[in-house]
Each structure stands twice: as structure tokens, then as C-alpha cells.
Write a structure and sequence with these properties.
Blueprint (H helix, E strand, L loop, with lengths): L3 E5 L5 E5 L2 E6 L10 H13 L8 E4 L5 H9 L5 E4 L3 H10 L8 E4 L3 H6 L6 E6 L14 H10 E10 L7 H14 L5 E6 H4 L7 E6 L5 H8 L6 E4 L1 H7 L27
Parallel strand pairs: 4-5, 4-7, 5-6, 7-8
Antiparallel strand pairs: 1-2, 2-3, 8-10, 9-10, 9-11
Helix pairs in contact: 1-8, 5-6
């Protein structure tokens, strides 16, 4: 059974820990207060593609502290949201220690991400947000072209995939993930990527938020929204992302592999 801890921190909220690893930062009193940089990047993409305050239907693959569902509710009240989180112990602890706001439409399903997405109706979501980890890695079955095909089916014509896909410098694994998304969504104009500048420059392991859609993305608007947040971050449009991930090989079911694990933070080196 997973060990869940809630640690008050200097940011004015609580860090949700699972087996000693930080999972989420939650500020119950201010759900628009996002601390993790990649969660800010995900929020920026949603703001660029589906501006507030109109409600949107969002499916979240991975729940933990339910940080982004809380943010969506705060910025777009009435939004129907599905959260696929298989760890029922974690969800129960989060509900008890960090109660969800009144009037929310957040429904947590105790399901793994892949079968949970496969069970969703066609064109049922404005956004699918993937932020799932198993033993420090993105699960392998969430990175294949077949998975991206299911996401493309579930998204509305104006929908968007927002996925945390961390990798090491060189992006060898990320290149394969991008290749699968490109194959499923059909054209390069539908892809973009957001990350901290030192991650984009290949100086360290880090989170990279992959964005995919049925329609060409407004990369300038994504950059504008990313620029509203404090972290020094960059956005790669379709052409630059294709150049940076050239040589990627589509991962398929049966040939999938998990993403690299994060290094010990104490051992990270900046190149």
C-alpha cells in the first residue's frame, strides 16, 4: 500500500507525497496558485486553446492531488471533469485532507489511464490532460500510437491533448513519443511543445509538455500565455519540434517502453 503524506511548504500550500516522492502541490484556498512549472505550462495551453471562463469537458489521466482539476473548476466553473486515478488510497487521503470545492463537477474514477481512455465516448472532451507516473515513469502504454489514436477519437474537433512527457537531454525517447502523436493527429501543424528553457536547450532531464490537436495550433497565443507565468520557458512550434525530434520511431503496442526515470535531484547536472 502506498504511503501518502501531506507536507506544508513555503509556497503557501501543501505538497502531496507518495512513497516519498512529490506528486502535486495544492493550495486549497487559492486553486489558481500553481507551483510546479509543467502544471503552469499545461494551464497556459488550456488558456490558449480554450479561454476562460466558458466551461470545458476535461479528462485527466492521473490525478494525485487534483491540482489541475481544481484550477479548471476555479477558472471555468461548471466544467465537467473526469479523473482517471487508479490509486484509491491516494484519492481517499486527498479528499480527506484537501477537500474539493463546493459545486465542483470533478469525478474520480479508480481506473488505469489506458483502459479508462479507451472506454470514453467519441468527441466527448475539449481536452485530455496526461500526467501519469508509475514508479517514477510515464506508463509505457500511454505513449504508443494506439493510445494517441484513442485520444484523438475522444477529443472534439476543437480539442487538445496536453501531455507531460519528461526526458533526458537528447530527447531520444521524446522523439518516439512525438512520432506517435504526429501519426495519430495527422499533420505537423497540430503539434507543439512547452518546457523550461534549460530543458529545451538540452542541459538537463526535465518535464516537456507535448501539445497535439486536430487543428493547427496558435503557437503565438501559447507563447503569450506561457509568458504570463514566472518560469523562464520556451515553446517549440511544429516545424522546430519536427527538427528537434527527427529520427523518432513510432512506438506501438507490444513494442512500447516506459519513459526514463527522473535522476536523483541531488545528482542532477547542468551541462
Amino acid at each position: 500500500m502506498a504511503e501518502v503524506e501531506f507536507v506544508a511548504d513555503e509556497h503557501g500550500g501543501v505538497t502531496v507525497m507518495r512513497d516519498g516522492h512529490p506528486q502535486s502541490h495544492v493550495d486549497v484556498d487559492d486553486p489558481e496558485h500553481l507551483v510546479f512549472e509543467y502544471v503552469q505550462h499545461m494551464a497556459a495551453v488550456l488558456d490558449a486553446v480554450h479561454p476562460a471562463p466558458d466551461p470545458i469537458g476535461v479528462t485527466h489521466v492521473g490525478g494525485a492531488g487534483l491540482t489541475l482539476p481544481r484550477w479548471v473548476h476555479a477558472t471555468r466553473p461548471g466544467s465537467p471533469q473526469i479523473v482517471l486515478e487508479p490509486d484509491e488510497t491516494l484519492t481517499a487521503a486527498v479528499r480527506e485532507q484537501l477537500p474539493l470545492p463546493r459545486g465542483h463537477r470533478i469525478r474520480v474514477r479508480p481506473q488505469l489511464g489506458r483502459p479508462g481512455v479507451e472506454a470514453l465516448k467519441d468527441a466527448s472532451a475539449h481536452a485530455v490532460v496526461v500526467d501519469a507516473f508509475d514508479e517514477g515513469r510515464v506508463p509505457a502504454d500511454l505513449q504508443t500510437v494506439e493510445f494517441f489514436g484513442h485520444v484523438a477519437r475522444v477529443l472534439r474537433p476543437d480539442g487538445v491533448l496536453v501531455m507531460n512527457s519528461p526526458d533526458e537531454p537528447g530527447w531520444r525517447h521524446l522523439a518516439d513519443v512525438v512520432a506517435g502523436a504526429r501519426a495519430a493527429f495527422g499533420h505537423d501543424g497540430s503539434l507543439a511543445l512547452v518546457a523550461m528553457r534549460d530543458v529545451i536547450k538540452g542541459r538537463r532531464y526535465g518535464n516537456a509538455v507535448l501539445v497535439a490537436a486536430h487543428r493547427p495550433l496558435d503557437v503565438d497565443e501559447i507563447r503569450r500565455q506561457v509568458g504570463r507565468w514566472p518560469f523562464p520557458s520556451g515553446v517549440l512550434g511544429a516545424a522546430e519540434l519536427a527538427r528537434r525530434t527527427a529520427g523518432g520511431r513510432v512506438l506501438t503496442d507490444g513494442e512500447e517502453r516506459p519513459a526514463p526515470t527522473a535522476p536523483d535531484p541531488g545528482a542532477w547536472r547542468v551541462r
